[in-house]
Design a protein that fits this description.
Elements: H1 18-55, H2 66-77, H3 87-111, H4 124-153, H5 155-161, H6 172-183, H7 192-221, H8 230-259, H9 273-284, H10 293-319
Helix pairs in contact: 1-3, 1-10, 3-4, 4-7, 7-8, 8-9, 8-10
């Protein structure tokens, strides 16, 4: 996932009438959805490489590294192989952005309101708190999106490792049907515990650092947050996205292991966060928790920058 893009204002959200608030939220969600689609199209190939490197065997690896993974992916599956499972994030962008923007806005309003109902300015720590709250809520929409794309992304590893392997499904829609049939409504939430463990601190770090960098720039040049140049906002978003991954990548490895495991509960190797961490440690120690780190870092700054640039352009267009 790319770290989320948000409105660039650093103060308390202004009070809005119900209708105005609904219209603003709808515009934010639409702009965020466009940004999410752009980051998916740009960043998904890197995500495919990340998940495949995270999920391959340590004793008999299929890929020697990120370059080899990219080469073999294109050789075996064509350029389309880099976009395996892309249907899931594309389909889920509106739901994901709605939960993301809704949670972040509500968190800022709650933190920016005194006990008597009056407003108070947000301090830097409030953005870390709001980011953590946002990460918790958004995990329930992002978790299923990541789960289905990951299931499709790793099928090539299984087919190359086992000549007798036959993919149980070849599309996201087929995967959805299979998991619902097998586990009911709990099916899409495989690995949810790891997703929560990743998202809460990661979004706190991302949003807190994003706002801190913008505030430092605004203070240094004595300008209002709304006057910060777009290039600075894009760079802040990119660096914020980088810190997002630096903060929690080992947890992302645990999440990938759980989400790429068998959908049949009795046949799973990775059953919970703690046992998965122990098993991964046994497979390769510290280095096992950083498989796929390179494509993730390569993706972080440009993907988040492009996403926020798209959000700002769409927001500006909707405001005219």
């Amino acid at each position: 996932m790319a770290a989320p893009a948000f409105n660039t204002s650093s103060g308390s959200p202004p009070a809005l009438s119900p209708n105005a608030g609904a219209i603003k939220l709808a515009k934010d969600i639409f702009a965020g959805t466009c940004g999410g689609i752009s980051v998916t199209l740009v960043g998904h190939p890197f995500d495919t490489l990340k998940v495949r490197l995270q999920s391959q065997s340590m004793t008999n690896p299929l890929y020697a590294g990120v370059v080899d993974c990219a080469r073999k992916t294109i050789q075996w599956e064509g350029l389309g192989g880099l976009y395996k499972g892309v249907t899931s994030p594309l389909m889920g962008q509106m739901f994901f952005r709605a939960s993301l923007f809704g949670a972040f806005g509500a968190s800022k309003r709650w933190l920016g309101t005194n006990a008597d109902g009056s407003s108070k300015p947000l301090v830097t720590s409030d953005f870390y708190k709001a980011g953590a709250m946002t990460g918790f809520v958004a995990a329930f929409s992002e978790g299923p999106i990541d789960f289905y794309k990951s299931q499709i992304q790793v099928q090539i590893i299984r087919s190359k490792s086992n000549p007798d392997y036959k993919a149980p499904y070849t599309s996201v829609l087929a995967a959805i049907k299979a998991t619902i049939k097998e586990s009911g409504v709990r099916g899409p939430f495989q690995g949810l515990g790891a997703t929560l463990l990743r998202n809460v601190p990661a979004n706190a770090v991302y949003l807190g650092n994003f706002e801190l960098m913008k505030r430092m720039y605004a203070t240094h040049y004595n300008i209002q947050p709304a006057e910060i140049p777009g290039a600075v906002v894009v760079l802040s978003a990119g660096l914020g996205g980088l810190t997002y991954w630096l903060a929690i990548f080992p947890v992302d490895c645990i999440k990938s292991a759980m989400q790429t495991d068998n959908i049949i509960k009795s046949q799973r190797k990775y059953t919970d966060v703690i046992s998965t961490a122990k098993l991964l440690w046994g497979e390769g120690g510290v280095s096992r928790f950083y498989k796929g780190f390179t494509p993730c870092l390569l993706r972080a700054i440009p993907a988040n920058g492009i996403m926020l640039l798209t959000v700002e352009k769409v927001t500006t267009a909707l405001s005219q």
